[in-house]
Specification:
Order of helices and strands: HHEHEEHEHEHEHEEEHHHHHHHH
Strand content: 5-15%
EC number: 3.2.1.17
Family: Belongs to the glycosyl hydrolase 25 family.
Strand order of the largest sheet: 1-2-4-5-6-7-8-9
Structural class: alpha/beta
Number of strands: 9
GO molecular function, one term: lysozyme activity
CATH topology of the largest domain: TIM Barrel
InterPro entries: GH, Glyco_hydro_25, Glyco_hydro_fam25_subgr
Helix content: 40-55%
Radius of gyration: 23 Å
Organism: Corynebacterium provencense
Length: 404
């Protein structure tokens, strides 16, 4: 299938197939068209992109202000893949997109050879580090993992069941037309969930697969060009108004694993969006001047991932990389990671209210910046005293005194 040329705004022209049908004046052809419900993209449909670490070659920034100015209304950001990969840009891209006025979403790239519920839990752990409200959690299904149609259907069913338990939200399903028809046996079991269909053509297929009556999102190109993104990028259309898009966004339900974590981390996420607004302006100004722009990490990323490590949901490798990205030297970054790992293994539990209070204290300077002093305060609260002395010398050259 061919990719469409780049476009930044919703298509307003009528597909050739519809034009030909009308000109022919054939009652039978018109009836067939209506029966298959294939319509042109309405003028009120919204454009959006989806991005991953590929859109940050060599650590380059995405100019989210320019993306928004180009007419993009939403952005799906890759969060995880399988059970061993987390997009290091997920948290910051989510916050920067939101700060630019773009509705953020996320997706998990499925590896069906690995247990479905384990992957859903791995993805859910990262959802709390993104911005909320956001679009529903999304399953990106493009591989079989060696499973046949019935086995793959079972895998999808288990993944959906687990992610609904963890978030209380119905997920979006992303897939290719040919994949669903061939590898999923064109099952209609999952047609109650929103469909994000990849179909690289000038119009949607005559019949939507899987028993869906309509698509919610259509990915029509995998090699588009959008202002603010220096690489090719996937282009999408949302079949609804901005009001409907906002209605689709939401937060994980209170009482679920992700919902409770999101509530505890809300002060961080609010600070992250505030910080991202300033960061976006800096990156955009540099881009306008024609300067090469490296991605500026948010200081809140480290705190979010450190708390995730303490909770046993984020890997030490992610924390180490985040600390390095935040500007700490390798020794300090490794020590922070080791301390977080120790607190995880100690299995110390704090009430959700105390975590929220602790986070608010760390951000208490009012500018949303997380410092090493704040990181030490978190580690002390969780009992990592063995590492406090080692790290204290890095805090303005003075000893660290835990808050009373």
């Amino acid at each position: 299938m061919r990719s469409l040329p780049w476009r930044r705004h919703a298509r307003t022209t009528t597909p050739a197939r519809l034009t030909a049908t009308v000109l022919m004046g054939s009652a039978a052809a018109v009836a067939a068209l209506v029966a298959t419900d294939v319509l042109p993209v309405p003028s009120w449909a919204l454009d959006g992109i989806d991005v991953a670490s590929h859109q940050h070659p060599g650590g380059a920034a995405i100019d989210w202000d320019a993306v928004a100015a180009s007419g993009q209304s939403f952005a799906f950001i890759k969060a995880t893949e399988g059970t061993g990969y987390t997009n290091p840009y997920f948290s910051s891209d989510s916050a920067k997109a939101a700060a630019a006025g773009i509705t953020p979403g996320s997706y998990h790239y499925a590896k069906p050879e690995i247990d479905a519920r384990t992957q859903a839990r791995y993805y859910a752990a990262q959802l709390a580090t993104g911005v909320s409200p956001s679009l529903p959690p999304t399953l990106d299904l493009e591989e079989t993992g060696g499973l046949g149609p019935t086995e793959l259907q079972n895998w999808v069913r288990e993944w959906i069941d687990e992610i609904k338990t963890l978030t209380g939200r119905d997920p979006i399903i992303y897939t290719y037309y040919s994949f669903w028809v061939g590898q999923m046996g064109n099952t209609t079991e999952f047609s109650e969930y929103p469909l994000w269909l990849a179909y690289y053509n000038s119009s949607l297929p005559d019949q939507i697969p899987g028993g869906w009556d309509e698509v919610t999102f259509w990915q029509y190109s995998g090699s588009g060009s959008v202002d603010g993104v220096i690489t090719d990028v996937d282009l999408n259309t949302y079949y609804g108004t901005d009001e409907e898009l906002q209605a689709l966004t939401g937060t994980a339900e209170s009482g679920t694993t992700v919902g409770d974590a999101t509530e505890a981390l809300k002060p961080i996420q609010d600070a992250a969006v505030d910080e991202a607004e300033t960061t976006n302006a800096v990156q955009h100004s540099a881009a306008v001047l024609g300067l090469p722009v490296l991605n500026i990490p948010l200081s809140t990323d480290l705190l979010v991932n450190l708390l995730g490590l303490v909770a046993g949901e984020v890997s030490p490798e992610v924390v180490l990389q985040t600390a390095l990205n935040s500007g700490f030297d390798y020794q300090t970054s490794q020590t922070i990671t080791d301390a977080g790992t120790e607190t995880r293994d100690a299995d110390i539990t704090l009430p959700q209210g105390r975590i929220s209070e602790l986070v608010s204290t760390v951000l208490g300077d009012g500018n949303g910046t997380v410092t090493l002093q704040g990181v030490l305060r978190v580690l002390n609260e969780f009992g990592a005293q063995d590492y406090i002395t080692n790290l204290a010398g890095h805090v303005n050259g003075s000893a660290y005194s835990p808050a009373g």
